[in-house]
Design goal:
Blueprint: H1 2-7, H2 10-37, E1 45-51, E2 59-64, E3 70-77, E4 83-92, E5 102-106, E6 116-120, E7 128-131, E8 136-143, E9 151-159, E10 173-177, E11 190-196, E12 202-208, E13 211-215, E14 225-228, E15 231-237, E16 242-246, E17 250-256, E18 267-274, E19 283-285, E20 291-293, E21 351-352, E22 359-360, E23 366-367, E24 405-406, E25 415-420, E26 423-430, E27 435-438, H3 445-448, E28 454-458, E29 468-477, E30 491-495, E31 524-529, E32 545-551, H4 554-561, E33 568-572, H5 581-584, E34 593-597, E35 605-615, E36 618-623, H6 626-632
Parallel strand pairs: 1-3
Antiparallel strand pairs: 2-9, 3-8, 4-7, 4-9, 5-6, 5-8, 10-18, 11-17, 12-16, 12-18, 13-15, 14-15, 14-17, 19-20, 21-23, 22-23, 24-32, 25-26, 25-28, 26-27, 27-30, 28-29, 29-30, 31-32, 31-34, 32-33, 33-36, 34-35, 35-36
């Protein structure tokens, strides 16, 4: 060190030390300025201009709303040529579809609608980070009058633009990610990857996590597009893994990001595979690209996540003299007497290890019976299988009038008519004192997604004569809803006020089935709604309609429609005498519901699906997911 001192004059060393001290003080002052300006808000409005010019330094943001309500504007500004990464650590607001409370992040300093990167309408305690496309970002935090603490905590930092074009990927295995991973990737980005396998018989397999791609059609792509060896594909978020096989040794991939908002981060694992044999010997290749063991095919479990392993299955021969102790036999304890003496349906309440075929009681004990929920028999020791079940006022529901018939007062106490700006628009079903379930396609677009425009009419048989009307406080559309094929077509609605107990004779919740509940081909169901009584009608029926249909075989359903997902099934009559179209298709579109009669005419009713597609003589319904039950309870 002493040798270095002798090499430079003291004036130079003084200059260097002064520059270092000045830089440190400048950064300290900037940090102090940010800390002093971002503090607890005491007024109704606040505007902050926050400048940052040091890379990868985290500057905290802490906004706390007061009882009088708060609207804060945070203008984040970095040096030209750099980007801003904003991380939301926690958010305490009221969940009401951003009507009174919200956190909105813009890709500019002006609140321009098409510049929205991200909008949060519900409280959150998990980290979410977002990246701008330039050096500017606007954060608007809004909180109305409060009775409990509301606020926003996070930080921002300045980052450099990321190189998102990769010339070549070397190696047999690895992973690629969206730009700025694990942050949400910004709109209008472009990524490119080139792969080359060492042998002509080896292709590239892409394993997506909670994502899938399918061939682009005339509707285009809502969330950006993929270009793989000159073929175009659209990307969608799903709740499971998928694998996409590319049968070529040379692979060129482009990802054009969405032009609208930031998207969730993508993680894609890649690896080579044998083009002539995508799956190892003894394995079955799913339509999702996954490989499962052959023994998992036709076992009654959706191992492929798209039911491709459960299609075109041959019903196994049933030997009533064989042992019934085989827990994974689908014909044992399925609610149907396959043996004359009913031996296959005995001892079904014995506790066994939990599997995909067993029913789980509230006390976490599993029993053999698959569809134990609301079948009129108490199977669980705690009675949870018969709690919260829907019961109808009418005991005689077997009417076979073609195209549907009028219902009786209180016959379907869970049926709801949803009115948009005063007009009957969709249907829903009561599942608790303040929650309804409906179809996600009813709430597409910013106008239809605004709960303030909706009214829920409960306890109603004739349109305009509802016994109870409530405003809608909140609409939750399934996060994976796909408007192109109606996958995950389900939504929850929270009422502004619960229906009173005094109306329990005409308003009742319908039983929400557990995840293990199965709908079987040939099972008799009912559909209800205010719709067309005849196919030539132009207007909806004023009186609530009902019609009996049956569940159609899933293989036939797939071959007929082609776009059926694992979360859908078909119902109707192949003879064409009755179908859901004549009940619910009209200019005043109402949702269609299949309510499964579990045991006999006086038994409890189970909510089985929501109408999402309609065609001649058949309807396609979206199955209710167990996640809905967890949200509403």
């Amino acid at each position: 060190m002493s040798e270095l001192l002798y090499q430079y004059p003291y004036s130079y060393l003084f200059t260097v030390l002064f520059a270092m001290l000045f830089s440190f003080m400048n950064r300290l002052l900037l940090y102090h300025r940010l800390l002093s300006r971002i503090k607890t808000v005491s007024g109704t409005n606040c505007i902050y201009d926050l400048h940052a010019d040091h890379l990868h330094e985290r500057f905290p943001l802490d906004i706390r709303a007061t009882s009088g309500g708060t609207i804060c504007y945070l203008k984040l500004i970095a040096l030209v040529g750099y980007l801003i990464r904003l991380s939301v650590v926690s958010l305490q607001i009221e969940a009401d579809n951003c009507i009174t409370d919200s956190l909105t992040i813009y890709d500019s300093l002006m609140p321009i609608k098409h510049k929205i990167l991200y909008r949060a309408c519900e409280p959150a305690d998990s980290l979410v980070s977002l990246v701008s496309t330039n050096n500017l970002m606007l954060v608007i935090f809004k909180a109305a009058h409060i009775k409990e603490q509301k606020g926003f905590h996070g930080y921002f930092e300045v980052i450099t633009q990321e190189t998102i074009v990769t010339k070549e990927k070397i190696g047999y295995e690895g992973r690629i990610t969206s730009p700025y991973y694990p942050s949400y990737y910004p709109p209008k980005c472009l990524c490119a990857w080139n792969f080359q396998t060492p042998q002509k018989n080896l292709g590239i397999a892409l394993k997506f996590h909670n994502y899938t791609i399918s061939e682009k059609n005339i509707k285009g792509c809502e969330r950006g597009w993929w270009k793989i060896n000159e073929h175009m594909y659209c990307g969608f978020y799903v709740d499971h893994q998928t694998v996409f096989h590319i049968a070529s040794s040379a692979v060129n991939i482009e990802l054009q990001c969405s032009s609208k908002v930031s998207e969730k981060p993508l993680l894609v694992e890649y690896g080579s595979y044998n083009i002539s044999q995508p799956c190892p010997p003894g394995y079955f290749k799913c339509s999702t690209g996954l490989c499962i063991q052959q023994m998992q095919r036709c076992d009654g479990v959706n191992n492929c996540f798209d039911e491709s392993d459960e299609l075109f299955c041959v019903v196994p021969e049933w030997n009533c003299n064989s042992s019934f102790e085989i827990q994974d036999n689908l014909l044992v304890c399925n609610g149907v007497n396959d043996c004359e003496n009913g031996e296959d349906e005995q001892n079904c309440t014995n506790s066994i290890p939990c599997t995909n075929h067993t029913f789980k009681c509230r006390n976490n004990i599993c029993i053999k019976k698959q569809n134990a929920k609301c079948d009129g028999t108490v199977d669980c020791t705690d009675g949870s299988d018969e709690s919260s079940c829907g019961s109808s006022k009418s005991g005689n529901l077997i009417s076979r009038i073609v195209g549907g018939t009028n219902t009786k007062e209180g016959e379907w106490p869970w049926q709801v008519s949803l009115h948009f700006v005063g007009t009957a628009y969709c249907g829903a079903s009561v599942i608790s004192k303040e929650w309804l379930v409906s179809a996600a396609h009813c709430f597409q677009g910013s106008k239809l997604a605004d709960p303030r425009a909706w009214r829920a009419h409960l306890g109603m048989r004739i349109q305009g004569r509802a016994k109870f009307v409530s405003a809608v406080k909140r609409i939750i559309v399934h996060e994976y809803y796909n408007s192109r094929n109606y996958d995950y077509d389900i939504a929850l609605l929270q009422l502004s006020k619960p229906w009173p107990d005094t109306m329990s004779h005409i308003i009742q919740p319908i039983c929400v089935p557990p995840f293990s509940h199965k709908v079987r081909s040939g099972e008799k169901c009912w559909i209800t709604g205010w719709g067309q009584k005849q196919e030539v009608d132009d207007e909806g029926a004023a009186i609530l309609q009902k019609a009996e249909v049956e569940i159609i075989d899933q293989t036939l359903c797939h071959s007929t429609y082609g776009i059926i997902t694992a979360r859908m099934f078909c119902a109707g009559l192949m003879s064409g005498r009755r179908d859901g179209c004549k009940v619910c298709t009209s200019t005043h579109l109402t949702s269609l519901f299949c309510l499964s009669l579990s045991h006999d005419e006086s038994a409890m009713w189970v909510f089985s699906g929501i109408c999402c597609l309609m065609g001649m003589n058949r309807i396609v319904t979206f199955q209710l997911q167990a996640s809905v039950q967890r949200i509403c309870t």
